[in-house]
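Researcher: Sequence recovery benchmark, item below. Answer with residues only.
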């Protein structure tokens, strides 16, 4: 039975309206926080009182490249999701341009029940050259990927991203509902091989969750936090935190930054996860428990006292990896995976 739930408690907030500088330590935090007014002085945000002016401002930087957009009929109430069989989606993907999407959004604005039109994860530097010269948040010691998200009212299912994320609301209103990484089993994650936008998503409709079908979701909801962003506000999300995103306005926009402090030479954790599915998950129970103990001792152990019995020069790959050692280990893995 579907149940309407009350909103969770708010995420911790920091007020930047007084020009407080962005402390680098906050961008390494392990819990989310909301930055009120962080980008309120951006020219785009200054123009956001009028949707047509804000969209025109964005379009003035356009490189006129093709982009993808999602379109869902009104019956889905803004929820971009799977079909009933989980073998396809309830939306279609369009090959279009930002200018065409902006024109259609303005036309749909007057409709009481408009179809959902949504552009996500558009590379700002490629699609809008020069935009970041006037609208940007420097991320210290990182070269973040900046992306544009724009559309009308929509609901994006809870998902996670590996990198850290700073998402800045530049038009309209957005609601973020976030869950700690340890709630993954209570979020009822759907297919990993067929996903709406590249990341696995929760199958729970958070507007009216079916607690008969997803009973453990009530445990996840007890750990949830929420934030509603206005133009100029931002939210910081640590990597791997699950977040559901709702666009609450007839036209809304977001610029987000993804970054990781770990050099690419160390590889992507998702590759290790997929390799573990391939090589460990199928083992007999006793062997899987043995490998879990090995991972706990040498991968997830935060102390190095389990190596005290060896001199430093003998620890090899068990010691903190240098870039050179990482390259050697990558080469060894590549050779073994070719077999």
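Model:
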């Amino acid at each position: 039975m579907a149940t309407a739930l009350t909103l969770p408690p708010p995420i911790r907030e920091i007020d930047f309206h007084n020009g407080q500088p962005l402390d680098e330590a906050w961008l390494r935090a392990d819990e989310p926080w909301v930055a009120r007014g962080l980008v309120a002085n951006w020219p785009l945000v200054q123009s956001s009182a009028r949707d047509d002016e804000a969209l025109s401002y964005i379009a003035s930087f356009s490189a006129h490249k093709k982009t993808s957009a999602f379109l869902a009929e009104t019956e889905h109430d803004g929820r971009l999701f799977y079909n009933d069989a989980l073998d396809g989606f309830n939306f279609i993907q369009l090959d279009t341009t930002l200018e065409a999407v902006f024109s259609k959004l303005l036309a749909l604005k007057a409709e009481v029940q408009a179809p959902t039109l949504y552009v996500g994860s558009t590379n700002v530097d490629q699609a809008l050259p020069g935009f970041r010269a006037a609208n940007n948040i420097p991320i210290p010691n990182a070269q973040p990927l900046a992306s544009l998200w724009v559309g009308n009212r929509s609901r994006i299912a809870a998902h996670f991203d590996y990198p850290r994320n700073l998402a800045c609301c530049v038009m309209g209103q957005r609601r973020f509902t976030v869950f700690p990484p340890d709630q993954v089993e209570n979020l009822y994650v759907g297919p990993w091989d067929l996903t709406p936008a590249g990341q696995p998503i929760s199958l729970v409709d958070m507007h009216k969750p079916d607690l008969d079908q997803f009973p453990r979701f009530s445990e996840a909801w007890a750990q949830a936090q929420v934030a509603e962003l206005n133009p100029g506000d931002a939210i910081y999300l640590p990597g791997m935190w699950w977040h559901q995103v709702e666009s609450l306005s007839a036209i809304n926009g977001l610029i987000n930054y993804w970054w990781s402090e770990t050099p690419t030479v160390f590889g992507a954790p998702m590759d290790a996860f997929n390799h573990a599915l391939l090589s460990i998950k199928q083992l007999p129970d006793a062997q899987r428990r043995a490998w879990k103990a090995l991972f706990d001792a040498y991968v997830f152990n935060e102390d190095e006292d389990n190596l005290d019995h060896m001199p430093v020069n003998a620890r090899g790959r068990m010691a903190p990896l240098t870039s050179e050692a990482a390259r050697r280990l990558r080469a060894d893995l590549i050779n073994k995976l070719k077999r």
